[in-house]
Design goal:
The radius of gyration is 22 Å and the shape is globular. By secondary structure, the chain is an all-alpha fold. The chain has one domain.
């Protein structure tokens, strides 16, 4: 084996990931230290988070009355509890440097989980450098302290636990993520399919009830006296977004962006793409037709099916990418959810490594353009569309359909 062949083997053989990821993690520890030490912190939402949780800690339980300098509290209860803990740990929110250290640890912990998930799915080592090179991602975690960082941790922890067949733990972690920020709901369709396939309909139903009960339990302090305020603020689906801050739909113009018809069109497209993935890709491991799959679920007879770690990660991340592609508006902090998903989805799409790096670079550039422009927003939407379409065409292993009915009987008789 010559040098070139060795280099190719090192870059493409998953067995070498176990040697490469610790080196990248060590480099990240150094880089995070330098960023926290040398790069100025950027105030956006931290002070507002602290103002809001201070009201909660003072006894306020009406979401309509919990506000900060940049607006009202619009996140679920787990967000409040986590940032209340940070409020106490960080000297009533004043010790921002210590908060940055905590978020650096959170970043590194999430990175370890992501790399572990990639290894479980058999991803090649050449993808790993893309997990540590994002300027925007470091900014979201270390310099802006957004709650999206916390939600992303729970999202990837849920993916890893599902890959390890820890269905109940995975669902609980996902529910925790939803309790931080509603964006994590985007993978709900994937979670449902994966747990039904992997654990069977009975356990899946139990996990679904558990996830719902957890949300109720988290919200009890707010639901007791002001239920409508909590539900309308923490899970507001009718929020009107500002064109000023959008990074994905800048190119359609403000009039289109604000129109109800555009919002409805995005909803229809979202549902249609999810439906296509569900019918033609996600339920394939069940080796049944759509009608039979639904009938099995309705009758409580859908038994566990063998699904791979790669299938689990691909299903979760395609559900996420579809949701982000069809989102009413994306802000810069939403890149926390997408950044680590993109290399995996581009790889599953079957693209050449060089093209993967080029598309990743284009997406990274677009998310770092501030304020967003027509070109940057087109690039963001195009990159998401490529990931979704590529995953649909090439991202899932083809499962041969089992012959049913009379044909099945004839086939059996010929063996």
């Amino acid at each position: 084996m010559n040098i070139y062949e060795r280099a190719v083997d090192l870059a493409t053989n998953p067995k070498y990931s176990k040697w490469i990821w610790p080196l990248l993690l060590l480099a990240e520890v150094f880089l995070c230290t330098v960023i926290v030490w040398k790069v100025p912190y950027t105030e956006i939402d931290w002070s507002t988070y602290m103002q809001q949780v201070s009201l909660f800690l003072s006894g306020e339980r009406d979401y309509a009355l919990i506000k900060g300098s940049t607006g009202p509290l619009v996140y679920p209860a787990v967000h409040v509890y986590i940032y209340s803990a940070l409020y106490h740990i960080c000297d009533d929110g004043r010790d921002i440097a210590f908060a940055q250290v905590i978020f650096a640890i959170l970043y590194l912990a999430t990175l370890v989980i992501v790399m572990w998930s990639y290894r479980s799915a058999g991803a090649p080592p050449y993808l790993l450098p893309l997990l540590v090179l994002s300027k925007r991602l470091h900014s979201i975690f270390l310099l802006r302290l957004f709650n999206d960082a916390v939600a992303t941790f729970f999202l990837w922890a849920a993916i890893l636990m599902l890959q390890r067949r820890q269905w109940a733990v995975g669902v609980v972690l996902w529910s925790m993520g939803v309790g931080v920020k509603m964006t994590v709901l985007l993978v709900a369709p994937a979670i449902a399919v994966i747990v039904v396939l992997g654990a069977g309909i009975i356990k899946a139903a139990g996990s679904g009830v558990t996830a719902l009960l957890l949300q109720v339990l988290f919200a009890v302090p707010f639901l007791q006296d002001h239920p409508s305020s909590y539900i309308s603020r923490a899970f507001e689906f009718t929020r009107q977004f500002l064109f000023t801050w959008t990074v994905n739909w800048r190119f359609v113009g403000e009039d289109v962006f604000l129109s109800k018809s555009f919002a409805l069109a995005l909803l229809v497209v979202h549902a249609s793409i999810l439906g296509a993935f569900f019918v033609f890709r996600w339920i394939a491991p069940s080796n049944t037709s759509l009608t039979q799959f639904i009938n099995n679920i309705a009758r409580g007879k859908q038994s566990p099916t063998q699904i791979t770690s790669s299938f689990i990660a691909t299903t979760m991340l395609t559900s996420l990418a579809i949701g982000l592609l069809c989102a009413r508006s994306l802000h810069y902090q939403f890149f926390a959810y997408l950044s680590w998903a993109t290399p995996f989805l581009l790889w599953k799409s079957g693209f050449h490594p060089l093209l993967i790096y080029l598309l990743w670079t284009a997406q990274e550039w677009a998310w770092n353009v501030y304020p967003s422009t027509t070109i940057s927003s087109i690039t963001i939407v195009a990159c998401l569309a490529i990931q979704v379409l590529g995953s649909f065409l090439n991202g899932f292993e083809r499962v041969p359909k089992r012959t049913q009915g009379l044909k099945g009987g004839l086939a059996m008789s010929r063996r």
